[in-house]
Each structure stands twice: as C-alpha cells, then as structure tokens.
C-alpha cells in the first residue's frame, strides 16, 4: 500500500480498504459505496443495476418508463419519481442514458440530480452514458463546484467520473463489461469496486472527459471494422466463396478481428449473435449512427479529417433512413449484399 498511499489522499484510503484490487463481495462493501442510485433502466441499465443489487448494494432506481421501474419495485427495490429523490437517498449515483440531452436533463433539469443547488447528498456521480467529452467536462465542473450536504471526512466536494462501457447487452447481463473511466484518479480507484460489481475490466483513461473520448474512438473503430468485414464477405460471396469459408480464412489470417470471429454479420455463420436472429437485439444501428455523429463532431472541433469515419457515419445514417434503425449495427452486411446468403 505504500506506493498507493503516496498518491492517494488519506481521506480516500478509507474507501479502499486493504486492497483496492481485490475481488468484490457483499461483506466488503465500504459504507461510502453502499447506497447507490441508478438512473436509466434500459437494455443496459437494467442488467447493470441488477448486478449491483446481487453484489449487495442498497440500490434506488429511477427511469421515465414506469414499467422499467416496476420490474424493480416488484422485487422490493426502492424506486423514486425524480432524479433528485434518487440523489437524496444515495451516496453514489450512476446514470446510463441514451444521449447527451438525456444526461443534461437528468443532471440539470427540473428535479434533476443537481436540483439541490450547491449542497448535494452524493459524494460521487458516475455517468456511463455514451456522450461527447465536452458535455462530460461541463457537467463535471458543475458537480465539483458544489459542496456536500454532509461532511463525512472522505471527500471535501462531490466528484464526477465519466465511465462509458464496452460489451453491449450480453456483457451487461453477464457482468463482463469493460469500463473506460475519465476523471480524478483517486475517485476512480475508490469507485473501482462498483465497476467490478457490474463488469470485469476497468481502464483509467486520464482526466475528465477522457472516458467519453475513449468510448467514441472505440465505436468509431468498431463501425469501420464491421463495414470492412461486411464488404469483404459480400465481395467474397459475389465471387463465389461461401461466407463460412471466407470467415475461416479471415480468422486464421491477418484479417481476423472482433467483427469476424466474435460478431460475424452473415446469417448462419455464427450462433448466438444478432445476425443469427434477423439482427434483433444487440447494439442498434441508431445508436451506432449517434456515436459516429459524436466522433465526427469531436473531430471537427479539433480540425481533424476522418474520411473513413465520415463514410461510416453516412452508411449508418442511410441504414436508419431505410428503416433499420432498431436492427443491430451488423445488419450493414445486408445493406452491402443483397444476394443469397450462402454459408
């Protein structure tokens, strides 16, 4: 602990226990991480909140969808009508929302998390939504300008971490998510047990907004990769090579990637992926188009040209216009290949 102590204030060491990297269990939950508010109970948030409950946290939930909250209230989990009420019942609040506008509304809107003005109950706010880094940084400044309603000795002011995830709905359900975290490193270390209650990997990305930046860069690469694999498989089938044969070649040679060996876009090649169930479930084309728009806006802001990213954004925008917005983003294969699906 000596190396850790040299860079972590003593007020935060009390949150970490004897080993901040240990596996987390119900009996080892520090009191400062015990009461967790969770806002956003969609496909991802439902499983993340459920895993927190299984880990032993006292969870309070909120969503604008009453039916989503009802799933928890029927199990005896506290639900609140507003984000502010969640904040008043929590030491930590986690948000998992579809867009930056939703995040801003939950934080700064009427009866939002910051409705209490300069005095807040939670000492830590974690946003796992995929939004632009600029919004993350502005919200973090708003949070850090407040004071804690009750001084407890382990934090002087409330702090915020941006912590988007990779792994999709299957990862959220199986508790195998990867968290990309930006913000104060001491807060990241203190909050790590929370992340490990919902996932299996955490990566500290640096200062505020860097977690959000990492996520849109990851999804930019993922979109381009999926389009490239789909295009190559489409070309191969048009030239007479079965998709299963070409996939086997990809996966044993230099073209191997996640889009070919773990999330293949051709129906019939791989079981348990969206392409095997008519592209239902998974990560929607609408969300991919949104994330690509965030990436392109960030690139424009710094004057960087991203030709492949721009092309990917156009392709997914067109997919949504054609009515595939709710289909998994791997349905881009059908956009590129309209022939018979030979496996």
From TrEMBL:
Gene Ontology annotations of biological process type: L-valine catabolic process
Residue stretches making up the 6-phosphogluconate dehydrogenase NADP-binding domain: 35-206
Gene Ontology molecular function: 3-hydroxyisobutyrate dehydrogenase activity; NAD binding; NADP binding
UniProt similarity note: Belongs to the HIBADH-related family. 3-hydroxyisobutyrate dehydrogenase subfamily.
A cellular-component GO term for this protein: mitochondrion
Protein name: 3-hydroxyisobutyrate dehydrogenase
UniProt-annotated location(s): Mitochondrion
Record keywords, A-Z: Branched-chain amino acid catabolism, Mitochondrion, NAD, Oxidoreductase, Transit peptide
Associated pathway: Amino-acid degradation; L-valine degradation
Residue intervals of the 3-hydroxyisobutyrate dehydrogenase-like NAD-binding domain: 209-335
Family annotation (Gene3D superfamilies): N-(1-d-carboxylethyl)-l-norvaline Dehydrogenase, domain 2 (1.10.1040.10), NAD(P)-binding Rossmann-like Domain (3.40.50.720)
Domain of life: Eukaryota
Enzyme class: oxidoreductase
NCBIfam families on file: HIBADH
Reaction catalysis annotation: 3-hydroxy-2-methylpropanoate + NAD(+) = 2-methyl-3-oxopropanoate + NADH + H(+)
